[in-house]
Design brief:
This protein is an alpha+beta fold and about 160 residues long. It is about 20% helix and about 35% strand. The strands form two sheets. Strands 1-2-3-9-4-7 form a six-stranded antiparallel β-sheet, with helices on one face. Strands 6-5-8 form a three-stranded antiparallel β-sheet, with no helix packed on it. The relative contact order is 0.18.
C-alpha cells in the first residue's frame, strides 16, 4: 500500500475512533439527562454532569502499572481515559489475559502489538482500534520495542483512582 493510501486509511480509522468515542460519551450524558426526570441514574441518585476543563499532560503524573508499563489517567464521572505506554522486554512477562465489567475501546498510536479478544488473536498497529465488550477476556502485548495506545473505559475505572 502506498504511503498516501496508508495515511488516508489511518486518518479514516482515527476519525471513526474519535466519532465512536464522542457517541460513547454523548450516550452517557444523554442517558443521565433522560434519567433526571425521575431522579435515577444506574439505580441511585443521578450523577451531575462533568464540569469541562483542560488537563495538561505535563500536570498529569505517570502511573506505573508494572514493569515497563506506565500511563497517564484522566477521569470524568462516567469514563476513564488512559494514555498507555508499554515496552516490549524479553525479561518482562507477557501481560496476562484479564477481564473486567467495564467496556473498553483502544486506539493504537504507535508500535505493533498482538491483541487477544476472547478466542480471536490479531496483530494491530498505528491507526487500528478495537472494542472490548464487558467481561471479555483480553490481553495486549507489544511486538515492537514500544507500543502506545489510548484506552477509554466506561463506567469509570474507580480501581485506577489514586488511593
Amino acid at each position: 500500500m502506498d504511503k498516501q493510501k496508508e495515511n488516508g486509511r489511518m486518518l479514516d480509522v482515527g476519525k471513526l475512533f474519535f466519532s465512536l468515542l464522542f457517541l460513547f460519551a454523548f450516550q452517557g450524558c444523554l442517558s443521565a439527562q433522560l434519567d433526571r426526570s425521575n431522579g435515577k441514574d444506574h439505580g441511585s441518585s443521578w450523577i451531575a454532569p462533568v464540569e469541562g476543563g483542560v488537563v495538561s499532560a505535563d500536570d498529569q503524573p505517570w502511573v506505573q502499572f508494572g514493569e515497563g508499563v506506565r500511563g497517564k489517567i484522566y477521569f470524568s464521572d462516567r469514563m476513564t481515559l488512559v494514555y498507555l505506554e508499554m515496552l516490549n522486554s524479553h525479561t518482562r512477562p507477557k501481560y496476562p489475559a484479564h477481564q473486567h465489567h467495564h467496556e473498553q475501546m483502544v486506539y493504537v498510536l504507535e508500535g505493533q502489538s498482538m491483541v487477544q479478544l476472547g478466542d480471536e488473536v490479531r496483530e494491530v498497529g498505528p491507526g487500528d482500534a478495537y472494542v472490548v465488550p464487558s467481561n471479555t477476556p483480553h490481553t495486549f502485548n507489544p511486538l515492537t520495542d514500544r507500543a502506545v495506545v489510548i484506552e477509554v473505559f466506561t463506567p469509570t475505572r474507580e480501581d485506577f483512582r489514586p488511593k
